[in-house]
Design brief:
Blueprint: H1 12-16, H2 18-31, H3 36-41, H4 71-101, H5 110-122, H6 142-171, H7 179-190
InterPro entries: MIX23, MIX23_fungal
Protein name: Caffeine-induced death protein Cid2
Family: Belongs to the MIX23 family.
């Protein structure tokens, strides 16, 4: 069974380092969600029932690899591996979303953007001579860039969780059809929502 990756140390520098942020999310997804079938197969005890030679005479309703998993193993996997890994990623995305919406006094490109804005206002624009002279594309602040990345990552996260939850539902009897409700119920059982 997979081990939940550790939560990275959450700092604004971590969030602004988009490579580190993406890698952290990718590693967590790869450890649990991308390998969900292998993780679920690891929950099945292969020798729980002895081999019956007559079982080969008739077609089985489920392929052997898609055998249902007992409820105790399923709930243990969800409570100890799946939901904690989702929570770690939610914490990272929430923290970085807060960083993206906060003022950024340490932005290294702030002065450069101000200088470019002043130059753009002072330019003489003659669109008859140069139809492109009126164009000005200001640099994006790093908080805006981070916000765009987080919007994409949140959409990816929703798609991945939905897919993972449907695969878990095929093998385990999920009480909730919706992964968000199941995650909220897990948070409540743990003693608080984050």
């Amino acid at each position: 069974m997979s081990r939940t990756p550790d939560q990275p140390r959450l700092t604004p520098q971590f969030c602004f380092n988009q490579t580190a942020l993406r890698d952290s999310l990718r590693i967590s997804r790869g450890a649990v969600d991308d390998t969900i079938n292998q993780n679920l197969n690891a929950l099945v005890t292969p020798s729980s029932t002895p081999f019956d030679p007559t079982s080969t005479a008739e077609r089985q309703p489920r392929p052997a690899g898609r055998r249902a998993i007992d409820a105790t193993s399923c709930s243990g996997f969800k409570d100890r591996v799946l939901f904690p890994s989702w929570q770690v990623r939610s914490d990272v995305l929430s923290y970085c979303a807060g960083v993206a919406t906060s003022p950024d006094p340490d932005d290294p490109d702030h002065v450069l953007r101000q200088v470019e804005d002043v130059r753009a206002r002072e330019r003489i624009v003659n669109e008859r001579l140069d139809p492109y002279s009126g164009r000005y594309f200001p640099r994006e602040a790093r908080t805006e860039s981070l916000a765009a990345l987080l919007r994409n990552e949140m959409m990816v996260e929703k798609i991945i969780r939905s897919r993972t939850w449907s695969l878990v539902g095929e093998r385990c009897e999920n009480e909730d059809r919706d992964f968000e409700k199941a995650t909220d119920a897990w948070r409540t059982r743990r003693g608080g929502s984050r």
